[in-house]
Every structure is written in structure tokens, then in C-alpha cells.
Amino acid sequence: MRDLSAGPRVLLKRLRELMAEPLEPQERLDRIVRQIASNMVAEVCSVYVLRSDGVLELYATEGLNKDAVHLAQLKMGQGLVGTIAASAQSLNLSDAQAHPAFRYLPETGEEIYHSFLGVPILRAGRSLGVLVVQNKAQRNYREDELEALETTAMVLAEMIATGELKKITRPGLELDLTRAVTIEGDSYGEGIGLGYVVLHEPRIVVTNLLNEDSEKEIRRLADALGSLRISIDDMLSRREVAMEGEHREVLETYRMFAHDQGWVRRMEEAIHNGLTAEAAVEKVQSDTKARMIRLTDPYLRERMHDFDDLANRLLRQLTGFSSRSTSEGFPADAIILARAMGAAELLDYPRSHIRGLVLEEGAVTSHVVIVARAMGIPVVGQAAGAVALAENGDPVIIDGDDGKVHVRPMADLQKAYEEKVRLRARRQEQFRALRDVEPLTKDGKRILLQMNAGLLVDLPQLTASGAEGIGLFRTELQFMISSTMPKAEEQENFYRNVLRQAEGRTVTFRTLDIGGDKVVPYFRSQEEENPALGWRAIRLSLDRPGLLRTQLRALLKASAGAELKMMLPMVTEVSEIRAVRELMQKEIQHLSKFGHQLPKRLQFGVMLEVPALLWQLEELMEEVDFVSVGSNDLFQFSMAVDRGNARVAERFDVLGRPFLRILRDIVRAADKAGTPLTLCGEMAGKPLSAMALLGLGFRSISMSATSIGPIKAMLLALDVDRLSQLLETALDDHHTHLPVRDILTGFAEDNNIPL
Predict the structure, then answer these.
(1) How far is CA 213 from CA 13, 172, 219, 220, 288, in A?
(2) What does the alpha-carbon distance between residue 16 and residue 211 come to, in Å, rounded to a whole number?
(3) Interval 297-333: pLDDT, tens
(4) Which end of the chain has fewer CB within 10 Å, C or N?
(5) Which is nearest to 146 in space by CA: 131, 128, 126, 124?
(6) How many Cβ atoms sit within 10 Å of the Cβ of residue 248?
(7) Is 342 helix (H, G, I), strand (E, B) or coil?
(8) Rounded CA separation 629/606 (Å)
């Protein structure tokens, strides 16, 4: 194992003393570069710091022209210094001026120096500046000298991160670490949130950088690695972890990385070069991240995340840091930033304090996003680099409407968003004033407004929103946030709790809709080429009758003496409804046999979301007590459009004639059979499309709790009969090319209907 010579060891010791002395920032920097030059026998040592405008400014030098300090500058990517900062990689050159990136700065007087060693000043893989040594003689610097300079750069990174250099930054300029940053992501949950950053896995700040005893630190590292390996082995041996599957492969990869000798050797070398065990882990982690952060290969990027996660676990072992401090010091306006997180982890946070969620990964269909949307939290996903660019406590704005995250926003942007939020708040006040107003249209049509839900945290919104009931309760969310299959008793208690909190208002439970993109961790399923059209919802439940019967029994017992209203998802043929009825009858007989009280009334319905049912409408209406249109899937399947595919998601309009005609046919069939009809998709929650639904003849719609106010404001101003006549003409006229959306918008404007 290579060890540092006495000179660099003296350097590290002297640096530790310098950091402890009560010095002004410029004097501290000047002494640091002087010490480095002396100990490395370099004729020049310079520190360049990255500003918020992407310029690297000379902050201190020993050997170059002192008058160039705070004047000499290079853009990111410009010259040798700019190249190092942009690539986050060191340069070791015997003849710097022969390098194609060399740029001559006459004010520095560096033309007489040939050999050049520059290292990036890194924090969490992000370049904050560059540290350089130079000599007149042509030479390549040794590997131990490179290690010494990289170690010294860590000290400077900490100095920059603490904000110490703000005092010597010229007026009107800011350092890169504090600059305003806008991150483009994807909108996963609408809404705007203003608050302060809470890192889901808080970054562990290593303050004890330099060691007194290398062998002691090597032992500390070995002990921590041993504990880490045991914890991974423990995860692999637990009974709840299936013996096969992709998650198993991930853990096996973790175990392989934890035993990786190259990783361990680099950390041990850093310790021998003067760092503490935790500083060595942070250095190797930062180096690895800097090298791999620009990779485009998704597999290799995932491996980088594995190493990053392992390093964080190791840092927690060494520092005794616990990240489970969700309530301690939690800001009143918190916006949570995470690389990825589980749905249950989100529920660990105090809901009343959360103003938004930012994810670097995940999809709009991931469990945590579904739960966050159910909680009414704005969500931005695919926000690359968000965690590294932010610090705990940074002011931040999340724009879930546009998919943007503004970290440390400029004052004018902050004011603009504050005004936007105030405007929304005023509108919400107006909507709250309508809470107890009966939902009657201008021409006297009574509309039933219900809300969609899936978690107990949704239930308080029933009263707050003025909803008359729950038109869709997604029972699968209980399964998706649980790490193990909910037992029959757990399901029963959960459903009973939902009914109790509904306080007599109608709750329509949808049976399990898992499979496809709704994957539960403990339920093994085959990988499918097109999961949306595959083994999911009622198809899966009928193939696993034990799973369905357990849920039916729990619903029946929870509804004892009350009304049970339930519906089946993803039904394709009426025969599937009959098959479930048979299972339900068996459960009723079983409960009766053992003296259990049954629901006083049972309403059995179906979600109409598969186009095949459109050719079975008469038969369907006779078979069920009610029908609920799932407009999201019905539109997707009717138009052959994947809503998650940006290229086609907006290609066809939900207010286009083909889809509105489909909905009109459903209304006519329900009216003819006298079967109650509702709609619980996204159409119901937007004033313009909800207006179209009322015009088509829907008298019951279900939506998110936050949409009820705007929808009620719209319908109170609406003359439904006039709109129905207009829509009828628009849908039957085969000669007009005017989009129905434009016709509806014009009608709303002409009649002062708020949208």
C-alpha cells in the first residue's frame, strides 16, 4: 500500500490547523495555496472557484501575478482549468502549453511554467472549482502527489460549501453552489408548492477530514464494511424476500459491490493518504460519481446509483447518522427531494407540512406518485440532478403544472409564484364558500358530485370538499403501500374504518386493480410485453379466486348492517361479472352459516373501460345495479393511445367527436335500462370536459377532492338543456370541421360559465 511521504503528511496537518485558525477567508486561502506549493515543491499553486454564471475565477495563487486574483477568469470548458471543471477529471501534463485546450492568460504570467497538475474541487460529484500546481521544469507528477492534491481539494470543497468565500466574492456575483437553478422534469401531479428542501436521504456532511492514525481508520473502515455486508446478507436471508426475481438480483448485485476489492482498495489508499475513514468513503464516492454521472447507458447509470447507495450506507455506519428523523426539525413548508422512494416512506412524513415531491427517477405510474397524487401533493418526476444541486433548507418552488423545479429561485420569480399561489388560494376560498350549496344547474338539474379516494388520508377531504360520497375507492392502494400481503383481518378493519369515516355517505369500493403497471412487491407476475392489455384487475382476480374471495369476505364483514357498494374493474365480458357473483354468493353463504351479520343492502356494479362492453350494453345494464365509466382507460383503449407515450398522448382529444359519441351511446343504454350511471375518470375533474359530460346526460360524476369546487362553480351557471341541444347537433353534423372543444369553449364564454 502506497503511503504519503512526510511532506504531504505535514501539509495535511498544517491544513487542519489553518482551518481551525480564526482567519479571514482570503488570508486562509492565501495561506493554503502557500502551504501546498511549499509542501509539493511547486512553484505555483492556484485556486479557481466556479461562479453562478459559469465562470471560473482565480481566488488565490502562490507564484502567479497577485494582481490577477479575482480578475483572471475562464468559462466552464475553456482552457485547461475549464476543461477540468467541465469533465470533473484531473489533468497531469508535462508540457501544458502543448495541450490543445491550453489558453494563455497574459495577466497571470504563467507562460514560463510547463508542467501542470489540476484537480477538480468536487462535492457530491459536482464541480465547485479547480486546484492547480505548476512548475517550470517539464515533468509528470507522481500518483501520490495527485492523491495529495485531490485530498486537499476536499478541504477547499468544504470551505466553499460552508459559504465562507461569500465574503470575498465581488458584489453582484454569486458562487455556483448558491446560484438559482431550474430543473426540467415531467409533471406527475398538478399544483404549485413553495417551501424549503428536505432531502429524503439527507446528505451526510463529513467535517472530520484528516486523520491522526491511519491504521486506526483502516480498522474503522473494515468494521463498517463488515456491518454493511452483514446487513445486506440479512436482507437476502429474510423470509419475506422471495428467493427469485429481479429484486433478488438487485440485492445480490449489492452484495457483490460491497465485496468489491477495487472499491475497498481505493478507500484504503485515501486513508493512507491522510483522510479519515468517512472522508475516504466520501472522496471515492465523489470521484466515482464524477466519472459516471455523464454516462448515457442506463445499466451503467444504475450501477452508479448502487455504488452511491452503498457509499451512503457506509457513511451512516461510520458516522452513526440516522436518516429517520422525519418529524424532527421538519419545516412547515417542506418540499421533499429524493432519487427514489417508496409509497410507505412518503406516509412517514407529517402530511400537513408537505408542499411537494420531487423525484429524480420513477414513473407517473409508480406507487409513491399514485399516493402523492391521492394526497393532493404536486409532483415532478425525472428531475435529473435535483438531489445533488440542492441542500437541506434551500428555498424551492415546485411547479407540478409545467414539470419544473426552481431551486434557490430569484426574487422576481419567487414573487410571481407567490402571486400565483395567492390567486389559487382566493379561488379555493370561493370554492369553499360553495361547499354546502346544492349542486343544481341553472335549469334545475340535480348533479351528484362525488370524490375519488384510496387511502385513509383522503377521507377528511370528504367533508372539506363538500363531496356527497366516494364514487371510486381504489382498494389496491392499501396493497401497494404494504410490504406484505394485507391479511383478511387487516383488510376488514381498513374497509370498516373507511365506512366509519365516511359517516353514512356512499362509498363505492372497486375490487383489486393490480397487475399491469400497478405492481405489488410481494406478488410475483410474469413480465408482459403490453401489461396494460395483460393479466390485471378482474382477470388476475378470477385466476386467483382465493385473493378475490378474501377481499369479498372482508368487504361483506366490514359492511355488516350497512350498505355495500362495490364494482369490478377491467371487465371485458358479462360472463366475468357472473363468475364474480358466484364467488360473492359463496362468501355470503359462508358468513351466514357462521352467524355473521351481512350488509343490509348490496349494490353490485362494473367499471366500463374495455371497448368490448360497448357491444354488450343491453346485456350489461340488465346484469348490474350500476355502471361507472372509467374514462381514462376507455379513451386509451378506444383510441389505441398509450397515455404514457409523449408522442401520441396528446394526439387525440377526449372531447373529440368519436369518444363523445361512445359516451352518448352509454348514457342512452343506461337511460333505456334505468341503470344508474356515473363517470370517475379525469374528464370529470376538468370544468370543460365535465360540462360536456353533463351535456351528454351524465348526472353523477366522481373526481379528485380538489376538483369539486371548480366543477360545482361551473354547473351552477350551466343551462344543461341548451348545452345538450348544442352538443347533439355538433355530434350529428358530419359536415362541420369545427372541433367540439372550440364549440364548448365558445358556449362557456357566451354564457359566463367559469372554467
Answers:
(1) 12, 44, 10, 11, 25
(2) 10
(3) 555 555 566 667 678 778 888 887 655 444 556 888 9
(4) N
(5) 131
(6) 13
(7) coil
(8) 8
Q: Is the dihedral of CA 214, 320, 359, 414 positive or negative?
A: negative
pLDDT in tens, 402-435: 899 999 998 889 999 998 888 888 888 888 889 9
Please give, one letter per residue, the 3-state secondary structure of 169-221: CCCCCCEHHHCCEEEECEEEECCEEEEEEEECCCCCCCCCCECCCHHHHHHHH
**Dist. CA 41–CA 10, nearest whole Å:** 13
Q: Regarding beta strands 448-453 and 700-703, do their DSSP bridges make them parallel or antiparallel, or are they unpaired?
A: parallel
Separation between Cα atoms, residue 218 and residue 340, nearest integer Å? 32
pLDDT of residue 99: 92
| Whether the Cβ atoms of residue 727 and residue 721 lie closer than 8 Å to each other | no
Of 435, 427, 461, which is closest to residue 191 (Cα–Cα)? 427
Residues in the chain: 755
Going by the DSSP 8-state scheme, the letter that residue 596 receives in this structure is -
Which positions are catalytic? 367, 680
Which of 5-14, 109-118, 714-723 has the least mean pLDDT? Answer: 5-14
**Largest Cα–Cα distance of the chain, in whole Å?**
99
**What does pTM read for this prediction?**
0.67
Alpha-carbon distance values, 443 to 152, 677, 714, 715 (Å)? 77, 21, 13, 10
User: 626-629 and 677-679: which strand pairing?
Assistant: parallel
